[in-house]
TrEMBL record:
The gene is lrp_3. Keywords: DNA-binding, Transcription, Transcription regulation. GO terms for cellular component: cytosol. SMART domains: HTH_ASNC. This is Leucine-responsive regulatory protein. One of its GO terms (molecular function) is sequence-specific DNA binding. It comes from Roseivivax jejudonensis.
Length: 151
């Protein structure tokens, strides 16, 4: 799908706050409601816009500990990788998981209530899949967090 300047403006506004009314978004991009709604519909159909969710405040809900977990493995078979990915998908504590190039094989972003909850997560994970080395880094302060793309 070809995205023009008006589409970009709409996407920027949706990234700022998708809960705003269609009238507010149309006004912000300098258009009217129906053309903006049609563009949003086309962007959804093309897969440019995915599911809309709500951002929750983790601290307000008691999830005060954010760990970045670095995983090295000596296992690279497809069956191990399948079990590992299933284990990650089944754990709601894992907010992000990335396979990396370099010395570290995977990095996870894990959000839990406290260090004890992280230990329970860790123990459960290593009981399901074998890993060579795990390093957990506790985030002391979240400086910036966004899902917005630099359009």
């Amino acid at each position: 799908m070809r995205i023009d300047e008006t589409d970009r403006k709409i996407l920027i506004e949706l990234q700022r706050d998708a809960s705003r009314s269609l009238d507010e978004i149309a006004k912000a991009v300098g258009s009217s409601k129906t053309p903006v709604w049609n563009r949003i519909r086309k962007l959804r159909e093309a897969g440019v816009i995915g599911a809309q969710t709500v951002r929750l405040d983790a601290d307000a809900l008691g999830f005060e500990a954010c760990f970045f977990v670095l995983i090295r493995t000596s296992e690279h078979e497809a069956s191990w990788q399948r079990r590992f990915l299933e284990a990650l998908r089944e754990r709601p504590e894992v907010q992000e998981a990335h396979r990396l190039a370099g010395d570290i094989d995977y990095i996870l972003k894990v959000r839990v209530r406290n260090a004890r909850a992280y230990d329970a997560f860790y123990q459960a994970l290593i009981s399901e899949v074998r890993v060579h080395n795990v390093t957990a880094l506790l985030s002391m302060e979240e400086i910036k967090s966004t899902t917005a793309l630099p359009l």
